[in-house]
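Field reference: sequence -> structure
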Amino acid sequence: QSAVSVPRDFEGCSTLRKYFGQLHYLQSRIPMGAEQEAAVPIAWTEIFSGKTVTHEDIKYEQACILYNLGALHSMLGAMDKRVSEECAAGAFTYLRDHFPHSYSVDMSHQILNLNINLMLGQAQECLLEKSMLDNRKSFLVARISAQVVDYYKEACRALENSETASLLGKIQKDWKKLVQMKIYYFAAVAHLHMGKQAEEQQKFGERVIYFQSALDKLNEAIKLAKGQPETVQEALRFTMDVIGGKYNSAKKDNDFIYHEAVPALDTLQSVKGAPLVKALPVNPTDPAVTGPDIFAKLVPMAAHEASSLYSEEKAKLLRDVMAKIEAKNEVLDQFMDSMQLDPETVDNLDMYSHIPPILMEKCAALSVRPDTVKNLVQSMQVLSGVFTDVEASLKEIRDLLEEDEAQERKLQELLGKVPPPQGSPPPPSPGLAEVSKECSKYMEVHEKASFTNTELHKAMNLHIGNLRLLSGPLEQVRAALPSPTLTEDDKQVLQNLKRILGKVQEMRDQRTSLEQQLREMIQKDDITTSLVTTDHSEMKKLFEEQLKKYDQIKVYLEQNLAAQENVLKALTDANVKYAAVRKALAEVEHKWNTTVQTLVASYEAYEDLMKKSQEGKDFYTDLEGKAAKLLEKARAACQAAEANRQQILEKEMKKQPPPRPTAPKPALQKKPLELEAGGLDAGDLPPLGSLVLSELPEELRSL
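Structure field:
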């Protein structure tokens, strides 16, 4: 009863462990297993479906207790400080390795794998945080982070299983999205610290590519983090500040100082994870945990001990086989990672047979707006017209001011004894000074806006062709997208590579199936009944005979493992022939993606261009009005200044004495008088433009 209503603390863990140990003692003595004489119905509720599941098998009770022990450990781990590397995976691992997976769907092999790797991943996260806080070496932190990624990748594989998806329902998508986000995030952390290590080793080219990769992976994590709590968003923003700053600084330093070649990421050694966390062990026969055996007198201990010894022999056999499988799997995984060959995407020719959905969406949007290009061109033409009008008005104002200044300078030269210094014009009238000031202000604004206007026209010219293409027939859009051209030999190389990749997957699937069969055989292999009737001296012989039942499946597994070398050799040869095709396909795919992105960018730029064009029209329309008013004002001020100059000249003429009688006048010389600097007072001169030699006083005529 205490184990059913267990408190959620470490005392609860102790209660579950004790009960589990006593059940182990009980089932080894009393026939309470499936279809045995003393079996009783045992009912538990599945955590995900809410259904009540009943089995007449004491092992089902043990399995449920183990599951709850793992769950309680995980809850306590979530509440504890994030500094311990111990985790809740131990109970789930023992449950997966020692109990049938058919009791209920939430105890399936995939669900247990999911739980185990989620627990290991979170424990490794705690260790990663501690390592970063302790300022451990960058390479060690990178390896710890890479191991977090490995654990979460295993969890993601379990989540992608159809059985897992049907069991978890809606939360499967949420969990998968969160796990994928963590995979990208901790991959970014790993490459961040690899970049820091490269920095410490003064490998500045490697530093740039690692930081760039970290930035790319972090961007993927941010995409997957939509809907996550604000604390997650804040952490991602903080990480973006760190990685973005590191990348920008590293790139700038390399571009301007070090000039090291930036290698491709796939040419660098991959970061191998360092699994440093440990699952809390489960030992049902540990007296320090389970307490004294309360059923010790019910069954001869010899049979129980012999059964335990046989279980250990089975476990040893499984460990030996699994060590070989894992070694081969590691080689296979590393080989496939280095090849970077995904059977799903190695042949992406289907992609080029149709327009991508995002481009179809833009074409459809433009099809209901047929005047898109026309409107943009007209808008820019109107803007150019207003721009030209403003420029003409400002030029006319400037010309008026320059003309007025020239007239004023001439007047001053005629009236003054010494001409003004070069380059310092006479002060204009107050009205013209105000016009000049406003004109300068408008010219400055116009020059700044002129640059923006030029940039806007450049942007329009850049996008107008793409917008015309998107507005046209879909056949033209499709024709504008690049597509690969493969020879028959290229196609044969591609088909051969796909066939061998299929063999690799077939080998993987067969290996997994054989491993599962072996586990199930070991799980069901119970010789307790035989042990009770077997003499102690014959136990070893009985074990040897019983273990022979595994020979056949071991042979199949060894054949599968031996075939790996030949399969990988064939794959290597096929990949060498595929290299040229791969390069060509990669180049076409890059051009395809670039073209699609360019067309989409042109569509998205349309609204912005229209908005900026309208803003430009509004701005120049306002400036045109102001310039027109200023032009009228300038004309009026110039006329007033000219009238003022005429009055001054008329006054000067009136001051001249009447001419005395003289000898007959020579023929009139209409050429204006040229005066040398100095020698005349301002009062001696008639109005500008009216001087002739015969009208001069006698004393001036000699000049």
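Note: Residues 8 and 395 are 85 Å apart (CA to CA).
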